[in-house]
Write a structure and sequence with these properties.
single chain, 3-stranded antiparallel beta sheet, 6 strands, globular, disordered N terminus, disordered C terminus
């Protein structure tokens, strides 16, 4: 068929391409405004005792932690140390949140998702008030989410996985593992999914090697400080706490050295609380709880092997909390959602806080709400919250995508499920730990919608032939 047409100028083609992304551009602008409102509404930033201050202290004095905090996030804080401003830390994390949304959108358009589906997939990350609060706190989550999404984006960018892309993804997932150790099993999960896709041994080898080198280097550094080749000194303590909700030593029959870790009648309202409960059996042993990490791991593994169904039942029960319509406090002392409030909150009187004020930011102080910005966020958060059943629907849509487009959608869906179940399996459910699931699950779900391929033709003498 012959059709007379005018040749489009390059500038016109660029404008047409930009018009294809105008919906997402508008969403991104609104999300940026929300983040500015958050910074104006709560000054200076949210600081948690004791997580935020141990991160800041490690940034000033870099060393591998024997507790729950590896070095990844303190390295970001150290890069910002010359500015001596926790408010700048929050600003950078808000930019990281926006950048994560841009990555999601870009990889979805690259893999043929229509514009409306790709833009919709970014909405929970960009607009859920829980993400605004998370980015405004000195916590590792914003960095962790970005690294996981970036690793997936690199792996999914092209239909054929190159050695270079696999190596880059390995480095990103290693960075995620050094930010939050739950990414360690994610790296193995990614390798298994890619092996099932038969991407070739060279990309798999590049992924494994690039991921293993930073982790091995960190483990060697850890060994210099703590005498043990490891990434964390808290994995055994965490898994022991998980087993305290079901362990029955009459069935486990542990040897005498492990029997000291049996439940002793202390009861708390969540598995993670056993880590800190003074009356828990681990905390009654001489020395710091983390000095008994290996012993705690041995007990936990024995308990799981002796009571596998009880263990699985507890993991399923706690994971199900994520799908409740009304957020369930777990443990009871936490605020699972709607955490924007009016008021002023003083910092506790702790020597570490004064040390961090001297060495990182002299302007560190208790959080204060500022009207009218905080008033807007307090009202906004009740509408801008992803309810549990909607997360369930997103994950189910990811299943549809994984069935329809397994070579593309299975990987992000598997990672989303790993992020959902993994923390519960090794410690406990926490609403904060669910947030990294959301953007990855949205990435998988949006792939269920594939844009119709564009008709292509060629032009000669001002005539298009199709």
């Amino acid at each position: 068929m012959l059709t007379d047409t005018r040749v489009a100028l390059p500038s016109q083609r660029r404008l047409s391409a930009l018009a294809d992304h105008r919906v997402f551009a508008a969403l991104l602008l609104l999300a940026a405004v929300l983040r500015v409102v958050t910074m104006l509404g709560y000054r200076p930033v949210t600081l948690y005792w004791y997580d935020s201050f141990t991160y800041l202290d490690t940034a000033v004095h870099p060393a591998p932690s024997a507790t729950f905090h590896p070095i990844g996030y303190p390295l970001l804080l150290r890069a910002l140390l010359p500015f001596h401003s926790v408010e700048l830390v929050a600003a950078v994390q808000h930019v990281i949140g926006l950048s994560t949304g841009m990555l999601l959108y870009a990889v979805l358009r690259r893999r043929s998702a229509p514009g409306w589906a790709a833009a919709s997939a970014t909405v929970p990350l960009l607009f859920d008030a829980s993400f605004l609060r998370l980015e405004h706190a000195v916590l590792s989550d914003a960095q962790f989410i970005f690294l996981v999404v970036a690793g997936l984006a690199v792996l999914m960018w092209s239909p054929r996985l190159s050695v270079r892309a696999a190596g880059g993804a390995g480095l990103l997932f290693a960075g995620a593992a050094l930010t939050r150790t739950i990414a360690l099993p994610l790296l193995l999960l990614v390798v298994l999914v890619l092996a099932g896709r038969r991407v070739g041994w060279r990309p798999l080898a590049a992924l494994v090697l690039a991921g293993a080198l930073p982790l091995t280097g960190y483990a060697a550094w850890y060994a210099q400080h703590h005498g043990r080749f490891a990434i964390s000194g808290a994995d055994g303590v965490a898994l022991w706490a998980r087993t305290m909700t079901f362990a029955d030593c009459a069935r486990i029959q542990p040897p005498p050295d492990l029997a000291r870790l049996c439940p002793n009648g202390t009861e708390v309202d969540a598995a993670s609380e056993y880590v800190w409960a003074p009356g828990a059996s681990l905390n009654r042993l001489p020395g710091d709880r983390f000095t008994h990490n290996d012993l705690a791991r041995s007990f936990a593994l024995d308990a799981i092997l002796a009571q596998p169904l009880d263990y699985l039942g507890n993991v399923v029960r706690d994971t199900a909390i994520a799908f409740s319509w009304t957020p369930i406090p777990h443990p009871d002392r936490t605020t699972p959602a709607f955490g924007f409030r009016s008021g002023h909150w003083e910092l506790p009187d702790q020597p570490l806080i004064y040390k961090v004020k001297r060495e990182y930011d002299p302007d560190i102080r208790g959080l204060s709400s500022v009207s009218p910005y905080a008033d807007f966020l307090i009202a906004y958060q009740y509408a801008a919250y992803l309810r549990g059943p909607f997360l369930g629907l997103i994950l189910l849509l990811g299943v549809v995508a994984a069935v329809r487009r397994p070579r593309v959608a299975l990987l992000p869906w598997a990672v989303a499920m790993g992020l959902l179940i993994g923390p519960v399996a090794v410690l406990d459910f926490d609403h904060r730990y669910v947030l990294p699931v959301i953007p990855v699950a949205c990435l998988a779900a949006a792939l269920a919608f594939q844009a119709a391929p564009k008709r292509r033709g060629y032009m000669s003498g001002g005539v298009i032939y199709r």
